[in-house]
């Protein structure tokens, strides 16, 4: 038995991200009482170079889950592990991008990306290393030619590319993306989905991405997680999505839509 375990090298490698038994309630406004649980006993695992998409009805707790994984909301119950180690608070190798790029308007694109290296827990870098990192991140998102532009000169899609570069500059192992493309038009959105695949292929990060959109989930995910609400839990999940052919993909789309409608009308 011991020999069989030792022969499996993958057995020693913990998942990139593990959420173990996460439960969460918010406090009622102006009261010490707590509300109904938003999340209850939620478990999730994510591997390197895997794109998992979190899909679910509005208000089911997707952003809360992402914020807990990012260490932006304090954990009440359960554990967040990154590379097998418990993590509390923001992690230097975890990058988070929200729906709005939130760039600093007084800095140009290059400086906004460099700002990602000025945040807490950044590695100490020489001027040269800092410059190389910024160029590398701009190149990864295809914004190398726009480094001197001001945020006001950027389209919505370009703004989100810069927001991605600002986290990529820290060479994250995990990207947590909360509806990052939902404010964009359909063509730009498809471009950005291709960009996420490129980034994962080039640097092998794990990605957990929240979306409302079933077609976006199918276009992006290796794995699709469907959440239900009250309390928020993973209702269903599908793996191997990228390997499906067109016919299987249509069947899956139908299945997801049916399950979503079951969740919305219990
Ligand atoms: N800071 C907070 N205080 C109190 N309640 C909150 C807070 N943040 C979120 N909630 C509540 O928790 C529930 C889950 O919110 P959350 O934003 O995680 O949902 P979501 O799935 O991301 O929704 P959407 O799809 O609309 O973005 C909602 O009912 C929301 O009103
Ligand atoms: Mg949300």
Using brief descriptors, characterize the structure shown.
six-stranded mixed β-sheet; binds magnesium ion; binds adenosine-5'-triphosphate; 266 residues; Rossmann fold; alpha/beta; four-stranded antiparallel β-sheet
Bound molecules: adenosine-5'-triphosphate, magnesium ion
- The CATH architecture designation of the largest domain is 3-Layer(aba) Sandwich
Strand order of the largest sheet: 6-7-8-3-9-10
Helical proportion, percent range: 25-40%
Characterize the main sheet: 6 strands, mixed
Q: Report the C-alpha radius of gyration, rounded.
A: 19 Å
Mean pLDDT across all amino acids = 90
Count of separate DSSP helical elements: 8
Secondary-structure topology with pairs:
Blueprint: H1 2-6, E1 17-27, E2 34-46, E3 51-55, H2 62-69, E4 77-82, E5 85-86, E6 94-97, H3 109-115, H4 127-140, H5 156-168, E7 174-178, H6 186-203, E8 206-211, H7 214-220, E9 223-228, E10 233-238, H8 246-264
Helix pairs in contact: 3-5, 4-5
The structure holds adenosine-5'-triphosphate (ATP) and magnesium ion.
